[in-house]
Amino acid sequence: MCEANAYLRQSGKDELLLEMVDKVLPHEDGLVLEDIFGRRKIIKAKIAELALVDHKIILEKEDN
Amino acid sequence: MCEANAYLRQSGKDELLLEMVDKVLPHEDGLVLEDIFGRRKIIKAKIAELALVDHKIILEKEDN
User: Fold this and answer.
1) What is the pLDDT of residues A2-54, one digit of tens each?
2) In chain A, at which end, N or C, are there fewer CB atoms within 10 A of the end residue's CB?
3) B8 within a domain of the structure (yes/no)
4) In a domain, B41, yes or no
5) CA distance A64 to B21
6) Which domain of life is it from (chains A, B) (predicted)?
7) Nearest-CA neighbor of A5 among A43, A47, A58?
8) Do A9 and A21 contact (CB within 8 A), yes or no?
9) How far is Cα A57 from Cα B41, in angstroms, rounded to an integer?
C-alpha cells in the first residue's frame, strides 16, 4: 500500500494530522483527507509539499 | 516504491505530466515535480487532488 502520513507544518514544525492517507480532495476552502479505511478529516489547509517515497504529505494553513 | 504519476487536469481530462514522481515542492508561483531518478519538471500549477493508493497526483493550473 502506498499511503502516506499527513502533517501540518506550522512555525517550521510538522505535526502529524492523519496516518495512512489515501485520498486528499478539495472541500469548500479546505481539504478532505481520507485514510485507507475511509476515515475522513476535514482541514482548512492546502498541500504544500509531497515526499512520497518518505510517505509524507505536508499541509499548510491558507495564507488568508 | 511509493511514487505516483502526476497528471494535469484540464477541461475535465487528465493528461500525464510525469511518471514515478517522488517529490512535489513549491517553486515561485508553481511547483517542482521530481521523479525517483531526480529528474525535475517545473510547472505553474497547484495540487488539486491525491489518490495515493491509485498512484495519482492531480494538478490544476492556477486560477489567476
Assistant:
1) 799 999 999 999 999 999 999 999 998 799 999 999 999 999 999 999 999 99
2) C
3) yes
4) yes
5) 30
6) Bacteria
7) A58
8) no
9) 19
Range of the structural domain that residue A40 is part of: 4-61
Residue among B51, B11, B55, B29 nearest A53 (CA): B55
CB B9 within 8 A of CB B48: yes
Is B25 inside any structural domain?
A: yes
- A64 has pLDDT over 60: no
Tally of structural domains, chain B: 1
Nearest residue of chain B to residue A60 (CA atoms): B26
- Chain B interface disruption, residue of A32, A50, A55, most B CBs within 10 A: A50
C-alpha A61/C-alpha B59 separation (Å) is 19
Between chains, do B49 and A23 touch, taking CB under 8 Å as contact?
A: yes
Nearest to A50 among B23, B48, B55 (CB): B23
Q: Which residue has the higher pLDDT, B5 or A2?
A: B5
Q: Which of A18, A9, A57 minimizes the C-alpha distance to B23?
A: A57
